[in-house]
Amino acid sequence: MKKRYIIILIVIVSAIIILAAINFFKEQNKKTSQQTEESSESQAGDGLPDLPGIDRKEFTAGGQNSLSEQIDSYVDSQTESRPSSGENKELKDIQFKDKEGNPIPLNDFEKAVGIKVDDQLQKYLKSGDYSFMVCSGKDGEENHGLLLNIRLLSKEETFPDVIKILSRWEPSMLSDLSGILFKNASLGESDLSKKMEFKDGKYRYAELTLENGKKISLNYVWVDDYVIFATSLECTDEIYDYVYGAD
To answer: 15-31 burial, b for 16+ CB within 10 Å, e for fewer?
Structure first.
C-alpha cells in the first residue's frame, strides 16, 4: 500500500513539474514575441534602404519649446530649401524621434502638427513607422508627402479592407492632412470645406482650385507595406520609386 502511495505521489509531482515547465516556456515565448514586436517598432523606417538621391533626416525632440513648435520649426527648415528637379534631385525622408531616440508615436505626431489620420486606418498601421517626405520640385511648391507603414495583416484582414477605409476617408482627407501636407498653402475655411472629387489615374487623386486661384492636388496609393499621400503626381512617383525599390 505504501509503495502505491509513493508511485501516486511521484506521478503527481511529475505532472506538476511538467505543467510548470510548459507554462514557463509559454511565458518565455510570449516575452520573446513582445520583444521582437517592440524592436520592430523601435526600428521604424529601417526597412527602407539608403538609396542614391535619398536624404534621410531625423528630428529629435528637445529643448524648452513644445513638441508642436519644435516640429513646426524643423519642418519649415527642411522645406525652405529643396533641390530642383534634375540629375541632383533628392527626396528627403524625415523621421521623428523623442529625447531617448525612440520613434514619436503617430498619435503624438498628429497632435503636434494638427493632422488626423483616419481612426479605422490607424488600426492597420505601425504606430512609430511613418515619415514626412519632401520631394524635389519648383521653389514655392507644396511638394510634400506622408508615408505610413501598414503592419502585417492577419488572416481575417484583407487588402480590400484598407482600400475601403481610404475611399471612405476621401471627403475629409484634405482637411485632415492639410496641417502637414499643405502647411504653407494658407488654406482657409472655405477651401477646406470644399469637396474634393477623387478620380482613378496612375494613382487615386483629386484636384482643387483655392479661393486665391491656386490649384492643389492630393494623391494617394497603397504600395507594398506603405500608404503614400503626396501633393503632386511627381512627388507620388518619387516616393513610390523609393518604396518599390526597397524590395
So the answer is: eeeeeeeeeeeeeeeee
Residue with cell 505601425: 126
Q: Count the neighbouring beta carbons within 10 Å of the beta carbon of residue 247.
A: 8
pLDDT category, 7, cuts 50, 70, 90? low
Q: Where are the alpha helices (DSSP H) in the chain?
A: 2-42, 67-80, 106-113, 119-122, 159-181, 189-192, 233-244
Q: What span, in angstroms and rounded, lies between the C-alpha atoms of 232 and 217?
A: 6
Q: pTM, whole model, 2 decimals?
A: 0.74
182 closest CA partner among 203, 149, 150, 206: 206
Per-state percent for the chain, helix, strand, coil, to nearest 5:
45, 20, 35
Look at residue 243 in the predicted model and tell me its pLDDT.
87
For 66-90, the pLDDT digits (tens) are 999 999 888 888 877 555 444 445 7
